[in-house]
């Protein structure tokens, strides 16, 4: 989905002005923590899709916006290699990378030699964060993950972004879908403020779902209007 200043590409968000690709909620190790699996395996699936997106978009910068890991208290077998593969593919594409900590990433410091942080300023007006905490700095726009938004359309679930006007301190908030395909996601069809887990989302009625499909992007009315239509 292209607008004047951002593009939704599958489960990622590209910000042309900053030449930055944002992805969140990889939840590496989720396949080891639950009785689910992908036909090609979690690691191959994530690595292949990241490589495809990097080749398609060629960003100069990638922000991994938190919840790289799934388990809070241990590092399942293979997760270190999966994370190394993510960084290798970004390095191979010639992009720099910024890693943000999410609420699941309590063990992340044991796997990374470089620094992590809670939020990252792309410009004077845009901050990227995971979204589970109130931001420490003001911005006109926040780009976050954490919510794993999905929308139910004609009985099928689709990962979606949420473009939300007039949220935390009057700012715009864009929520990106979970990059992992193992997360079932949080249905936004009946979501209200009491269901949101991010303190940045203060008026969900003003959030517009956007999905990326093989047939092109679909942008929906704000949730306050959409609930009466679905």
Automatic annotation (TrEMBL):
GO terms for molecular function: hydrolase activity. InterPro entries: Calcineurin-like_PHP, Metallo-depent_PP-like, Pesterase_MJ0037-like. Residues 21-112 form the Calcineurin-like phosphoesterase domain. Pfam families: Metallophos (PF00149). This is Putative phosphoesterase, ICC. It comes from Halanaeroarchaeum sulfurireducens.
């Amino acid at each position: 989905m292209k607008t004047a200043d951002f593009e939704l590409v599958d489960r990622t968000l590209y910000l042309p002005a900053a030449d930055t690709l944002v992805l969140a909620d990889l939840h590496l190790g989720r396949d080891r923590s639950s009785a689910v699996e992908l036909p090609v395996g979690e690691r191959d699936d994530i690595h292949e899709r990241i490589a495809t997106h990097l080749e398609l978009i060629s960003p100069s910068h990638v922000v991994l916006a938190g919840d790289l890991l799934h388990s809070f208290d241990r590092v399942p077998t293979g997760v270190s290699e999966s994370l190394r593969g993510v960084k290798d593919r970004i390095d191979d594409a010639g992009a720099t990378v910024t890693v943000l900590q999410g609420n699941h990433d309590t063990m992340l410091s044991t796997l990374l030699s470089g620094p992590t942080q809670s939020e990252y300023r792309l410009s004077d007006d845009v901050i990227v964060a995971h979204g589970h905490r109130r931001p420490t700095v003001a911005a006109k726009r926040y780009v976050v993950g954490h919510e794993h938004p999905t929308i139910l359309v004609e009985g099928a679930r689709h990962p979606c972004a949420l473009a939300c006007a007039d949220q935390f301190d009057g700012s715009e908030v864009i929520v990106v879908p979970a990059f992992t395909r193992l997360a079932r996601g949080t249905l936004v069809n009946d979501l209200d403020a009491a269901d949101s887990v991010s303190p940045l989302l203060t008026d969900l009625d003003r959030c517009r779902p956007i999905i990326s499909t093989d047939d092109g992007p679909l942008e929906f009315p704000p949730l306050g209007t959409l609930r009466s239509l679905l």
